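Researcher: Final request for today, and then I'll write up notes for the group meeting. The sequence and the SMILES for adenosine-5'-triphosphate follow.
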Amino acid sequence: MSSLTITGVTKSFGTTRAVDDVTLEVPHGSFTTVLGPSGCGKTTLLRLIAGFLVPESGTIAFGSTVVAGDGVRPMPPQTRRVGYVPQEGALFPHLDVAANIAFGLSREERGTTGGDRVAEMLDLVELPRDFRDRRPDELSGGQQQRVALARSLAPAPAVVLLDEPFSSLDAGLRGSTARAVRRALQATHTTALLVTHDQNEALSLADQVAVMRGGRLVQSAPPSEVYLSPSDPQVAEFVGRAVVLPGAARGTRATCALGEVVLTAPAEGDVALMVRPEQVFVDLTHAEGVPGTVEEVSYYGHDCAVQVRLDEGTSVLARMAGVRHPVAGDPVHLRVTGLVRAYRPAGLP
Ligand SMILES: Nc1ncnc2c1ncn2[C@@H]1O[C@H](COP(=O)(O)OP(=O)(O)OP(=O)(O)O)[C@@H](O)[C@H]1O
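Model: Predicted protein-adenosine-5'-triphosphate complex:
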């Protein structure tokens, strides 16, 4: 196992810069999710790390070993000690689970410790040991992905790369499979990078979230920082619902359609303010805050989304517990709780 260091890596296809000057550090034994919309370069980045593609500039290093770039001949994929878990269909359909898991082991390992290693890997991914004799088509989609992870971990790789490994699973299976995969990676202290365009998956699984847009890495930080202090309003809207309002800042306070708010950092003059919907407190009983009328309520059980038209005209989304909620037409008052991030508005220096 080792850390993964990507420095200034660029890769183009014709005139498309699929990966554009990306620098990212994945510490030893940690889990990073790469989040971004379709076509932003996530898979290309994984393929560069795996060695299926060669960067035109920049370097990729596993620990202190440079595997691509820096004028060195790129290390071929088979010698990089990378585990790769694709979306689906990774398993050999004609081999049983044991043979699939043992596939990456050397002949000696398979002969001596292969059986133990298969049992160990099944335990690790929380599958019963008697699954070893089953064929992939006798497993559910989630079980197949756990076997695919077991196979990638069996040879103790330096780095494991997962390319949208849960995207073919339904919502329930997706969460439980993802958590099992995270436990297995943590238990083995494996350095891992998982690509996804699912915000919840990216935030809930990782130690670090790397957000990509148009080939560039626009932010890499712990999940709470990416959510609460996104690097720009576009990232804010990509990693969750966001209310972005124009405001006027003076030091650590700013005024906007939601009244006076407290900022995460001092700012001056015109700003764009980013408020998360759960920071907007909907007061049903007291006339404290900014007045408005409920336009629409989407009820999700655990919580609900309340769209409010302020009397001054702005429409704002609030999120509140689903226990006692207003209905369309109700008068309410809104207040902002917690700190608010301010940005220079687009177009201003
Ligand atoms: N082999 C290729 N030849 C030409 N263009 C490519 C090739 N592979 C990727 N691209 C282009 O590079 C860009 C990034 O593609 P990539 O597959 O890395 O995006 P992605 O973020 O993984 O997308 P998705 O989430 O849809 O899988 C896209 O514009 C894509 O069309």
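Model: The two ends are 44 Å apart (CA to CA). The pocket of adenosine-5'-triphosphate is lined by residues 13, 16, 18, 36, 38-44, 197 (CB under 6 Å).
Researcher: Thanks, that's everything.
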